[in-house]
Amino acid sequence: MADLCNQAAGSAAPETPAGILMLRTMSMPADANPNGDVFGGWIMSQMDAGGAMMAYEMCQGKVVTVAVDEIVFRNPVKVGDVVCVYARCVHIGNTSLKVRLQFWTKRGISARSTRVKVAESCFTYVAVDDAGKKRPLPLSLTEHREEILRLGYSADLL
Ligand SMILES: CC(C)(COP(=O)(O)OP(=O)(O)OC[C@H]1O[C@@H](n2cnc3c(N)ncnc32)[C@H](O)[C@@H]1OP(=O)(O)O)[C@@H](O)C(=O)NCCC(=O)NCCS
Predict the structure, then answer these.
(1) Which domain holds residue 48?
(2) 94 lines ligand 1 (CB under 6 A)
C-alpha cells in the first residue's frame, strides 16, 4: 500500500484539516520562545499527545513513540491562538502503527478567524506491555486493517 505520508497534495482547492480532531487547546505565555512566538517543541509535543491518544485507543493499551518523520513549520503560532491537532491512521503494522498529524492554528477569538496549517508529520507508535516490550497489535485492529485505514480511524471496528 502507498504510504499516505508521502502523498503529494494535488488539489488547488483551499486546504482544510484532514483527520479526526484529537486535541484543541490555547497556547499560553509559558509556551513561548524567546522571540515571543510559540516554541516548536511545544507544537511537536501537542502533535505527539494527539497521536498518542489515537494510538492508545487503537492499540487498547500502552504505546510509545518510536519515530517521527520530518516536520516543517510553515507558519508561526502566536500566544493566545486556538490550536488543533487532527489525526488519521495511515499504516497498521504488526506491533506498530503510523498516524498522520496536522497542527492547525486559529488566530483571534472570533468564530470567523481564519485557520492556518502550521505543521504536518507522521508519528509511529509501538504497542508495549507493562514491561515496555513490544506486543502484537489487537486482532480487531489487524483484522479490520483495510477498513480502518480507509476511514483513518474507527471506534466501531475496535
Ligand atoms: C519502541 C520499542 C519498544 C521497540 O522495540 P524493539 O523490540 O526494538 O522493536 P523493533 O525494532 O522490532 O520495532 C518494533 C516496531 O516498530 C517499528 N519501528 C522501529 N523503528 C522504527 C522507525 N525508526 N521508524 C518507523 N518504525 C519503526 C518496526 O518497524 C516495528 O513495526 P512492526 O512490528 O509493526 O513491523 C523500543 O525501541 C523502545 O522502548 N524505544 C523507546 C520508546 C520511547 O521511550 N519513546 C519516547 C517516549 S514515548
Answers:
(1) 20-157
(2) yes
* Domain tally, the chain: 1
> Does the structure show a pLDDT above 60 at 90?
yes
Cβ–ligand 1 distance for 49 under 6 Å, the answer no
Q: What is the pTM of this model?
A: 0.92
pLDDT above 80 (res 4): no
Give the distance (Å) from ligand 1 centre to CA of residue 124: 8
Q: Is residue 79 part of a domain?
A: yes
**Helix, strand, coil distribution of the chain in percent, nearest 5:** 25, 35, 40
Supply the CATH number for residue 65's domain: 3.10.129.10
CB neighbour list of residue 49: distance below 8 Å, 6 or more residues apart:
23, 85
